[in-house]
Specification:
Elements: H1 2-5, H2 18-33, H3 59-64, H4 74-77, E1 90-92, E2 95-97, E3 107-109, E4 112-115, E5 121-123, E6 128-136, E7 141-149, E8 152-159, E9 169-170, E10 175-178, E11 189-196, E12 199-201
Length: 207
């Protein structure tokens, strides 16, 4: 009343659903009038794109070897490689030992020995390329070497046979041979080595 007395006018707009309802009705009417046709001869396909959920078995290896293998820390190296046998039973460790053939002291054992029955499956410890697959003239007998990239290699010795060829690409865990006692060996076992930029290191640091 006071505003009216002073000549001012106040306009109040109340919300309404009329416009919304009319637009909605028109939209429904248009939808009802619309006709969608399709040629009955056109094939209908509902194929889903192929999505692979297969994990990358060498994911940790690739991540760790983004730098030279020589620069990988001990913590990062642990677990990068898989066991080369289904069961690992250590019979002789890496480092100085008594030579089991000659009895001499101070021999440097260049890998890990795992006792296993002759003819047991030997697996590649990671994906890579075979760079050596033949008789080793320095005691390894039938020997396989796999290059895993960026300076990391593994070797498998005293095998009863050679199951791969040089240049062959392998996936982690692939069966590469059977265990044996060829070369300078006192019985059935696998001599497993890890080589980092040409230097032999204890395989336990990478398994």
């Amino acid at each position: 009343m006071a505003l009216a007395a002073t000549g001012l006018a106040l306009a109040v707009t109340m919300p309404t659903t009329a416009a919304t309802l009319s637009v909605g009705a028109a939209g429904r009417a248009a939808a009802e009038d619309a006709v969608i046709t399709a040629d009955p001869g056109v094939p209908m396909a509902f194929d889903r794109p192929q999505v692979s959920s297969r994990p990358d078995a060498d994911g940790k290896l690739h991540q760790t070897l983004a730098v030279s293998a020589a620069e990988v820390t001990a913590a990062a190296a642990k677990g990068v490689l898989s066991a080369p046998l289904d069961t690992l039973q250590q019979t002789s460790g890496f480092g100085s030992r008594i030579n089991p053939l000659t009895g001499e002291m101070g021999e440097v054992h260049t890998g890990q020995d795992y006792g296993v029955a002759c003819g047991s499956a030997v697996h590649g410890a990671a994906g890579g390329t075979v760079t050596f697959a033949r008789w080793h003239p320095y005691g390894g007998g039938n020997r396989i070497v796999i290059d895993h990239g960026n300076g990391l290699s593994t070797t498998y010795n005293h095998l009863s046979q050679i199951g791969v060829t040089v240049g062959q690409t392998l996936e982690r865990g692939a069966r590469i041979s059977l265990s044996g006692t060829t070369g300078s060996s006192t019985g059935c076992h696998l001599h497993f080595e890890v080589v980092v930029n040409g230097t032999l290191v204890d395989p336990l640091g990478w398994l």
